[in-house]
């Protein structure tokens, strides 16, 4: 990847106030030119500690309070908009389209290289939902990376939210179709109440671009399902993580069909029991924290819940001397 990275990296002012953004040029894929975006906000005082955050599916980085919390605790904050997501989606590309989650290794490696060259010696790798699965896979396969010291997972996508053995049996066979018709779109199963529960124009408190994190995404391509399923199966067969890992998730999941209390106080995207089951299968120093009243993205929960999240996160980092 070194031939694609020019250093020092050129940053432009990001639309998010106080943040900078740089382009990472990546090798072409089956759709042509590929880029990722590296977003940065530095701490008030010079530090050798940093965090690299990776977003979830149908998402991009906009969680400014998360960055500010890390800054206040002495970490420079970096986030990736992965290829074909958010700031990095190019006009000729099909959004979110990858054949293998390991394709994201290219931008993660480049981001880590930049962070190291910018003077950091210690990094927390952080991921939400699909980003949590990507981070887990990356950390397991690159266990000796000298910069990564810990892993923080925010509601990681360790398994599909399926309620019956019949659904899981069907998923196994649907995945096989991806080798034949990877572009076939099937129902996503994503709860359409989730994004409105977050956005300030509806029932939430957060400002984000609904073009980059859309309110509705009813269908998903088989290529994505296959890429995720393959990594989930590897995880569930047993992996080892040679660094401290913190998994945080809502205390409960629910599947509301209309507006209700559950929409704003539970995970309506994934099954938290799956997260716990899979996290317990990981060999290593893994801590699991259930957060009462949390949303799928725990740092977008209501204020009192977020306070608890940050208390637990930074207490854990302090305990691990990170």
What would your notes on this structure say?
With 322 residues, this protein is an alpha/beta fold. It has a single domain (2-319), classed as Rossmann fold, CATH 3.40.50.1820. The protein is built from nine helices and eleven strands. The protein has a nine-stranded mixed β-sheet, sandwiched between helices. It has a two-stranded antiparallel ribbon with strand order 8-9. Strand 2 (20-29) and strand 3 form a beta hairpin. Helix 4 packs across helix 6. The protein is globular. The two termini are 28 Å apart.
What labels would you give this structure?
322 residues, alpha/beta, Rossmann fold, nine-stranded mixed β-sheet, two-stranded antiparallel sheet, 9 helices, 11 strands, 23% strand
In a nutshell, what does this entry contain?
With 322 residues, this protein is α/β, with parallel strands linked by helices. The protein has a single domain, classed as Rossmann fold, CATH 3.40.50.1820.
CATH class: Alpha Beta
The CATH superfamily is identified as Alpha/Beta hydrolase fold, catalytic domain
Average pLDDT, all residues = 95
Number of domains: 1
Strand order of the largest sheet: 1-2-3-5-4-6-7-10-11
- The number of helical elements comes to 9
Helix-strand string: EEEEHEHEHEHEHEHEHHEH
> What is the strand content?
15-25%
Q: Tell me the CATH architecture.
A: 3-Layer(aba) Sandwich
- Supply the helix-strand structural class: alpha/beta
* Overall 3D form: globular
In the predicted model, the low-confidence regions spanning at least 5 consecutive residues are none
Q: Quote the distance from N terminus to C terminus.
A: 28 Å
CATH topology: Rossmann fold
Radius of gyration: 19 Å
Q: What is the share of helical residues?
A: 25-40%
Give the total of beta strands.
11
Biggest β-sheet, characterized? Answer: 9 strands, mixed
């Amino acid at each position: 990847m070194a031939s694609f990275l020019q250093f020092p990296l050129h940053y432009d002012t990001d639309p998010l106030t106080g943040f900078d953004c740089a382009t990472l040029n990546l090798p072409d894929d089956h759709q042509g030119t590929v880029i990722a975006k590296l977003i940065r906000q530095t701490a008030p005082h010079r530090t050798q500690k940093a965090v690299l955050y990776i977003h979830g599916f149908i998402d991009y980085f906009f969680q400014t309070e998360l960055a500010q919390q890390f800054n206040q605790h002495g970490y420079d904050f970096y986030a990736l908009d992965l290829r074909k997501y958010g700031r990095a989606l190019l006009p000729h590309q099909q959004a979110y389209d990858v054949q293998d989650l390991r394709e994201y290794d290219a931008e993660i490696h480049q981001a880590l290289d930049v962070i190291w060259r910018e003077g950091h010696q210690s990094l927390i790798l952080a991921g939400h939902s699909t980003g949590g699965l990507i981070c887990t896979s990356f950390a397991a396969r690159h266990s000796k990376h000298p910069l990564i010291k810990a892993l923080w997972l925010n509601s990681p996508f360790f398994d599909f939210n399926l309620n019956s053995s019949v659904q899981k049996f069907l998923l196994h066979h649907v995945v096989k179709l991806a080798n034949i018709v990877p572009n076939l779109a099937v129902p996503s199963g994503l709860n359409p109440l989730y994004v409105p529960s977050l956005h300030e124009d509806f029932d939430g408190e957060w400002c984000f671009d609904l073009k980059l994190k859309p309110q509705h995404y009813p269908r998903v391509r088989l290529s994505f399902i296959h890429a995720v399923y393959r990594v989930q199966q590897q995880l569930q067969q047993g992996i080892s993580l040679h660094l401290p890992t913190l998994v945080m998730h809502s205390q409960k999941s629910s599947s509301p069909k209309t507006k209700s209390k559950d929409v704003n106080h539970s995970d309506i995207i994934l099954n938290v029991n799956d997260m716990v089951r899979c996290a317990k299968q990981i060999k290593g120093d893994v801590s699991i924290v259930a957060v009462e009243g949390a949303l799928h993205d725990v740092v977008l929960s209501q204020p009192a819940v977020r306070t608890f999240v940050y208390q637990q996160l930074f207490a854990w980092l302090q305990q691990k001397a990170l």
